[in-house]
Amino acid sequence: MRILIVDDEALARERLRRLLVRLKPEAELREAASGREALELMEQWPPEVLLLDIRMPEMDGVAVARKLLALHEPPALIFCTAYDEYALDALRHQAVAYLLKPVRERELDDALRAAVRINRAQLDALGVAGGGREEIVSAGHRGVETLDVAEVRCFLAEDKYVRVCAPGAELLLSETLKELEQEYPARFLRVHRNALVAAAHVLRLTRQDNAWVVELAGVDERPQVSRRHLAALKEALTGRPGGDG
Predict the structure, then answer these.
(1) What range defines the domain where residue 55 resides?
(2) For residue 62, what is the enclosing H or E element?
(3) Would you say 226 and 193 are in contact if contact means Cβ atoms under 8 Å apart?
(4) Closest by Cα among 238, 217, 242, 239 to 227
(5) I need a labelling partner for 65 at 20 to 30 A (CA). Which of 25, 47, 90, 146 fits?
(6) Lowest mean pLDDT among 66-80, 103-117, 123-137
(7) At residue 71, what are phi and psi to the nearest 5 degrees?
(8) CA-CA distance, 33 to 7, in Å (whole number)?
(9) Please, what sign has the CA dihedral across residues 94, 96, 101, 106?
(10) Looking at the 3D structure of the chain, how many domains does it have?
(11) 130, part of any domain
């Protein structure tokens, strides 16, 4: 059995390793100190079980778990958390295996038995990611690339991928626009069936070649606005039904 321990705290990783050596002496163990490091390691060494801390800087455990959904054979997942009992209700309700820090041997043993491959419905219902990821991660032929969500100007659906546009940067994601729209309902506005724009970076609506387009700060990309979404977009930007035309 291959088990990957992911936690930004060295002491927490060491504790889990000691417990796993006793419980699963035959297991091959690896460690990662961040979500990004874990994703890079998994490209070369796919684990069967992932012990994943929820609260980590830059890229939290829920963001990592979302990336697992794109894998052909994702590992069984056990969340590690210091959340209080109230927050843990969400984890219990979704039947996701979890460990409350500091981890105890018996609880780890039970979690290993209960660990399953997480599905999208479980992940979306956890509620531990707040307003969505703060960092977008793309794992492709150029390796693992990241981009702060605050820098994103728009998401554009193209072929089998979504192109992420930001000043001086572009990434390709495997998520769909619908998934991104659900993750960021307040931050990104639907303007077309193939485009979401960042509300905070909209400069203006303007006419271009007999169509409405959105001008965005810092990028040349001007997503087209469909008739279907024009009224709702004007209302969202102006606060008045239908906008001011």
Answers:
(1) 2-125
(2) helix 61-68
(3) yes
(4) 242
(5) 25
(6) 123-137
(7) -75, 145
(8) 5
(9) positive
(10) 2
(11) no
